[in-house]
Amino acid sequence: MERVTLKRTPLFELIEPKAKMVDFAGFEMPILFSSIKEEHLAVRQNVGMFDVSHMGEIRIEGPDALEQVQNLVTNDVSKIKVGQAQYNLLCLEDGGVVDDLLVYRLDEDAYWLVVNASNIEKDEAHIRRYVNGDVTVTNESDKYGQIAIQGPNAETILQKITNVTLKEIGFFKFINGDVAGVPSVISRSGYTGEDGFEIYARAEGISAVWEALESEGVIPCGLGSRDTLRFEACLPLYGHELDESVTPFEANLNFAVKLDTDFIGKDALASQKENIPTRLVGLRLLGRGIARQGAQVEVDGDVVGVVTTGTMPPTVNESIAWARVDARYKDEERFVIDIRGKKIEAERVPTPFYKRTK
Fold first, then answer.
1. If you average pLDDT over every residue of the chain, what do you get?
2. Which tens digits make up the pLDDT trace of 20-66?
3. b/e per residue, 241-262, with b = 16+ CB within 10 A?
């Protein structure tokens, strides 16, 4: 059999001796350093950091950049100023989701699209297919590393090694500054449900940032805890809650779709808005078992949906699941989940499963 060569992030040499590594989106990435539970609780109670250098960065710049980015994504990019970021979606003409991403406005005529690692090539091809006018598209994914520092003590710790005043960075805003002496873009958002920051730096400098954070006591965390954290907070993961067969409305992402703008897939979404076929619901299992992705969801013996993500995350400490169900059943109180032939009752619960106290 032909051996697949995995890509490595700029932090690989620092991380690999300390972590359990796995194949994720074609990259050799840490799934855990100590344990998923310890790393999860470190982020909820203190501070943790993640190597997310596998994420992609695609720059679109030029006089027509705003018009072209607006045509690509579902949210209203004209609303964000230089120094702000916005959650967004790339869609097909039928409304299916190509990817979810963040759009950073770097300058008046320059934008960064930060995309999922598994979709970098697909996203770039999609962008180049539809972009025209006076703009350039540059895939800068290999030039940058990215560290996410998350948790209630993230600001306090990061402030020790940066020359910018972090409290002045609002949510979904960013600033240029130095971190551990390394020129960086520092943004404030996250994928854990906690407060925190993303640090983007050139690939050759990102290791110094990681080492400085580690020397300040920040706990290295792997993709295992990143998944349980984002799931508790009900933040979607492409390939689970999102894919090309699912529209933003079916993923409960209505807030990121502005039908008063023009974008690829608008007509399809406009026609679906009043009759959304499926919706995501939160479920709590009433019996023993873990509902994994793909498990069927039933009502009165009829299959009405499928689990997109399920586990027993450390903060909630109950077996919970996110499921895509026929919209006619989205307000149903009781369901049955088929876990490898075993029927487990579940009740609908509010989402997100976890929300931090500010």
1. 97
2. 999 999 999 999 999 999 999 999 999 999 999 999 999 999 999 99
3. bbeeebbbbbbbbeebbbeebe
Provide the percentage of residues in the chain whose pLDDT is more than 70.
99
Nearest to 46 by CA among 141, 142, 147, 155: 155
**Which residue matches tokens 């009502």?**
299
Q: Where are the beta strands (DSSP E) in 67-213?
A: 85-91, 97-107, 110-115, 136-139, 144-150, 174-179, 182-187, 196-202
Pair type for strands 219-221 and 48-51: parallel
d(CA 283, CA 258): 29
| Alpha-carbon distances, residue 290 vs 283, 322, 337, 340, 347 (angstroms) | 11, 12, 10, 10, 14
pLDDT at 1 over 60: no
Distances (CA, A) of 156 to 35, 122, 150, 195, 196: 25, 38, 11, 11, 10
Distance CA 68, CA 130 (A): 8
Read off the pLDDT of each residue in 282-287 and give the average, rounded to a whole number: 98
Helices (H), 131-189: 154-159
Rounded CA separation 37/42 (Å): 8
SS3 label, residue 295: coil
- Lookup result for tokens 């690939």: 203
Give the residue from 59, 234, 242, 212 showing the smallest Cα distance to 147: 212
Cα separations in angstroms, 54 against 121, 144, 145, 165, 223: 12, 9, 8, 27, 11
- Helix (H) / strand (E) element for 277: namely none
Tokens for 273, please give them: 């808005």
- Residue 179: CB atoms within 10 Å: 26
The whole-number pLDDT of residue 357 equals 86
